[in-house]
Write a structure and sequence with these properties.
39% of the residues lie in helices and 18% in strands. The chain is of the alpha/beta class.
Length: 316
């Protein structure tokens, strides 16, 4: 079993990779190597065996939970004498920068939409709810991007509330990692999915450090099942630096990229720059705002070297 802190021992069942893999229970593989190639993130090495061992058991668990919720909903609708509701099941995926949240979200979306009970699965990232770049500059928050105060929480809560209440169409802003900003005039429309996967740094945060926060709802209030993708900070920093080097050769080389000035850095300069960004922004945000939310999750996916999952913690 994995080394757990006292809170985790009290709250979670712990599974080593081989133990978790058995819980797949013959669920068939529905992804090909070509499919997986499109789902992988930068600098990640997710293999079909990773999907088989980790994601297929998780897909089976979520399918069972969603079916149970759907059946309960039908019973409640019958009892209340009302037409069946169109409220989706909402899954949130949290974790640090560079941990692989987006890849986890994309793989789960691809697997979950193959179950007949919930074929319509939408994926939204909270990046689009960051304040526009001009607003961040005006508020002096550019060096705090990703911290709780850099998000338009009112807009995010209005969106998630609209989706949860079964509104026919709910719009989410779209974010560009090239321009480092929202794309003006473009939105992702979510139209009554069976499942919504919400991925982002902030989906488990509550901000209960201020008494005034107690009087307002949080994203986590609308979430049915939460996942936290976890890894040691030393690995996270390493992966961030490796990803930065990949971006330098790729996205940063685009003349329209906000970070185009990094494209000409040498390897040593790129490593030094990315280490500084981690130590001054991403690391402190992880320590202060993201990691403290880990034990709120229903399930924790723990990664080791090479982004490989080593343990799964499932809330009791």
């Amino acid at each position: 079993m994995t080394s757990q802190n006292p809170i985790q021992k009290a709250l979670y069942h712990a599974f080593e990779r081989a133990q978790w893999s058995v819980l797949r229970d013959a669920v068939p593989m529905t992804l090909s190597e070509q499919d997986l190639e499109h789902l992988r993130g930068i600098n990640e090495k997710v293999s079909l065996s990773e999907v088989t061992d980790i994601y297929l058991p998780l897909s089976r668990l979520l399918n069972l939970i969603v079916k149970s919720k759907q059946q309960r909903g039908l019973v409640l609708d019958e009892f209340l004498g009302q037409t069946p509701s169109s409220s989706p099941y909402i899954i949130s995926i949290a974790g640090s920068v560079a941990v692989g949240k987006s890849t986890t979200a994309r793989i789960l979306q691809a697997l979950l939409r193959n179950w007949p009970e919930h074929p319509k699965v939408d994926l939204v990232t909270t990046d689009g709810f960051l304040y526009p770049l001009a607003d961040l500059k005006r508020k002096g928050l550019l060096q705090r991007k990703g911290f709780p105060e850099s998000y338009d929480m009112k807009m995010l809560l209005e969106f998630i509330s609209a989706v949860k209440s079964g509104q026919a169409h709910a719009k989410a802003p779209i974010y560009s990692h090239v321009t480092y900003d929202r794309i003006k005039g473009q939105h992702q429309t979510v139209s009554q999915p069976d499942i919504l996967i919400l991925e982002g740094l902030n989906v488990l945060q509550t901000g209960l450090d201020s008494p005034v926060d107690i009087r307002r709802p949080f994203v986590s209030d609308f979430v049915d099942f939460s996942i936290y993708v976890d890894a040691e900070e030393s690995l996270l920093k390493q992966w961030y630096q490796e990803r930065f080097l990949q971006f330098r050769k790729g996205a940063f080389s685009d003349e329209n990229s906000y970070f185009h000035h990094y494209a000409s850095l040498s390897d040593d300069e790129a490593n030094s720059t990315s280490a500084k960004i981690w130590d001054t922004i991403n690391g402190p945000n992880l320590q202060l705002n993201i990691q403290p939310t880990r034990e709120r999750a229903h399930l924790i996916l723990q990664k080791g070297q090479d982004h490989l999952m080593s343990h799964v913690l499932l809330r009791k």
